[in-house]
Amino acid sequence: MSLCLIVILLALVSTTSADDARPNVVMLLADDLGYADLSCFDSPEVKTPALDGLAAEGAKFTHFYAGSAVCSPSRAGLLTGRFPVRAGVYSWIHTSHNMHLRVEETTIAEVLKQAGYDTAHVGKWHLSYDLEEGSGPNPDPGDHGFDYWLATGNNAEPSHRNPNNFVRNGKALGEVPGYSCQIVADEAINWLKGRSEPSRPFFLNVWFHEPHRKVAAPEELAARHAGTRDPHYYGCIENMDAAVARLLETLEELGVSENTAVIFTSDNGSYMKGSAGPLKGRKTQLWEGGIRVPGIIRWPGHVSPGTVIDEPAGIVDLLPTICGIAGVAAPTDRTLDGVSLLPLLTTAGPIERMKPLYWFYSPSRPVCVTREGDWCLIADPDIDLPRTNMFREEYIGPIKEAELVNVRLYNLRTDPGQTTNLAEQEPQRLEAMRQRMRDVHRDVMDEAFDWHLQSAN
Fold first, then answer.
1. How far apart are CA 248 and CA 245, in angstroms?
2. Region 300-326 average pLDDT
3. Is 209 part of the annotated catalytic residue set?
4. Catalytic: which of 121, 126, 209, 212?
5. Quick check: pTM over 0.85?
6. Domains along the chain with CATH numbers
7. Residue in 63, 71, 236, 368 annotated catalytic
8. What pLDDT sits at residue 7?
């Protein structure tokens, strides 16, 4: 054998070994799942053995946060590691909007793809609507770093059962028999099994539709919840859990489970009464019940089984965390608002935030929230911003100019229901947190893209 051939073979072996050593990442996202909607988060109604097992084998976050109180901005925050308004996504995206996740943003998928990862997105998208090839100018998942994708613009239509609005890589599928979560799991499993180079690391982004309305579940699951407010709501969560179980079994079958980090959370709180547990509020509101959600990360060999993390963290931290898991550098050419959670996951030490966790959603009152340690500060706008659920891009100018007033202070460790305003008892803390809220708010608003000005030009 020639020396040249030996060198080539050694290089190939080295590359394969390096790829084999790179952790895979599976990102699981529920839609409108409340903080107390899993049995491992003390749901009295739902049984979720697969997700319970994921938490038992890894880390459970008791203070984990969505990026917003509604879906599109939260998804933008997840993919970019930036506060959603900074990334130009103010509210849930309607077909009438110009607003979408801009290609100027850098996503987890783009970062990992550049590092040699295979990337796939399956499930709800809701960061644009022009998914069919030639249907419009807005970017689809392929324009944001996903090699392969199956998506719906928004919710599964007409419901989770037999949805008719899935698009695969630009091609509409028409009606697909079955339930949305199982269809999404099927696609993920087929992609995993069909990869042409299975030695390459992968990033698989699985965004379920459950339990967003209109809900539908197999009758045997719905029947378990007869007499509740909505048997199909609880049944579709259990159906989603069964889909997660199938996906985890596939990772085992392929021999990659031990080298795969699996992350699970929700895009915002629930609309269902009781789903927030002891927390105040619901979806569309920036009270705790609208933004605090289940958070689970399993990474065998790195995260000790049964770890419980009480440190506040959230979706905005997932890009730097996933970059840390993959061993690749996070983007440095833009402001990232999240921090890597690896120190918490590996018990290496605390994380250090240079700014508070921050949320802004214009129809909500409070309109703005920050979280620092045990403490939460909330504020209202100084002008009467429209509270309608249907966002209009002409609101952006007033939103960017609004100041924050009527601040209130809560200790979320002792008062998770946000019943007692401690502003008068903690004047120094109040003033310090108010200044930091103003600073981060102004920084975000100064960068936030103005879709109305773009359309006017």
1. 5
2. 98
3. no
4. 126
5. yes
6. 21-345 (3.40.720.10), 357-456 (3.30.1120.10)
7. 71
8. 37
